[in-house]
Amino acid sequence: VKSIAVLTSGGDSQGMNAAVRAVVRSALYHGLEVYGVQRGYQGLLNNDLRQMDLRSVGDIIQRGGTILQTARCKEFLTPEGQQKGAEVLRERGIDGLVVIGGDGSYQGANKLSKLGIKTMGLPGTIDNDIPFTDYTIGFDTAVSIVVDAINKLRDTMTSHERSSIVEVMGRHCGDIALYAGLASGAETIIVPEVPYDLDMVANRMKENFASGKRHSIIVVAEGAGTGEEIGHGIMTRCGMEPRVTVLGHIQRGGSPTHNDRILASQLGDFAVRKLMEGDSGKACGIINNELVVTDIDRVVNTKKPFNMELYNLALRLSQ
Ligand code: F6P
User: Fold this and answer.
1) Among 19, 113, 117, 304, which has the highest number of CB atoms less than 10 A from its own CB?
2) What is the distance in A from the centroid of ligand 1 to the CA of 93?
3) DSSP for 12-29, written as a single string
């Protein structure tokens, strides 16, 4: 491998810049040429690549978003689009590609790898829904944003003896809700991985209220339903009117935590080293603090297991 490219794709996440920086600087350190692809796979199809040097990634480790920008590209879902993408890279003499993104981005990397391009995936998403890695880049920051919001909500809920429903992102994965809920002492955590019973939630709120716990926080993962739906369901069951907060894209912005910056730095450097060793069609991750690679084909065809132990712990502690 003499020349590689890097792109960010799908929904952005905090720490993507730190990952781009690590890929570029590690590649240059090892004497490779490195190109940044603008706007994900869309930019690849538009031949929108620029050569990166040490200064192209200066002053970005602390910045949210992605300097390479990102897009969700329909054309790249077609075999013709994928063929075109592979040709653009070949024509430029680029033999390796690092793709930073979530599930959809990995599918694209998988296709390119089958067309002979050496690819490495890095898990860049706030959702933490990628299997074969304990954490994805951006998850830690998103969770800390949710925890901060819940702390603020709890202040005013306590003053007014009210309940609050906080709807968080995560697509089909409940990890943001679970980790933020546990870390903020939420009374109820609703996630798509565990069936829930609104009668039970409403009864519990009523009992808590009667026994002196006069405020509560319910965290809802968007994959399990909307905050509005749950709030309405609770009101019709027990007459209480929880206030609903939808945190939305706030969860995807801001400066990454040190955990996300370090994870991104480790994985970015690891991806470059793996490409240099001749590895391809792999996704990089961290399991029990060890950097690992897994066949990307396996990653895109596996559902991430839900951490029931942590969920049960949150249940036990939230009485
Ligand atoms: O995958 C990241 C994510 O933020 C999800 O949590 C959310 O469901 C989705 O992207 C939102 O997508 P968009 O930014 O296109 O509205």
Assistant:
1) 19
2) 34
3) --TTHHHHHHHHHHHHHH
Residue 112 near residue 82 (C-beta atoms within 8 A): yes
Which residues, in sequence order, are CB contacts of 311 under 8 Å at separation 6+?
Answer: 178, 189, 191, 193, 194
Tally Cβ neighbours within 10 Å of residue 23: 32
Per the CB < 8 A criterion, the answer to whether 119 and 280 are in contact is yes
pTM score:
0.98
Ligand 1, atom 8: nearest CA belongs to which residue?
171
**Over the stretch 165-205, which tens digit does the pLDDT of each residue have?**
999 999 999 999 999 999 999 999 999 999 999 999 999 99
For the CA of 72, the closest atom of ligand 1 is 15
Query: Which one-letter DSSP state was computed for residue 238?
Result: H
Cα dihedral 13, 169, 295, 7 sign: negative
Return phi, psi of residue 99, to 5°: -110, 120
- The pLDDT tens digits of the residues spanning 241-260 come to 999 999 999 999 999 999 99
Active site residue 127: yes
Task: Work out the average pLDDT over 119-140.
Answer: 98
Pick the residue with more confidence: 35 or 208? 35
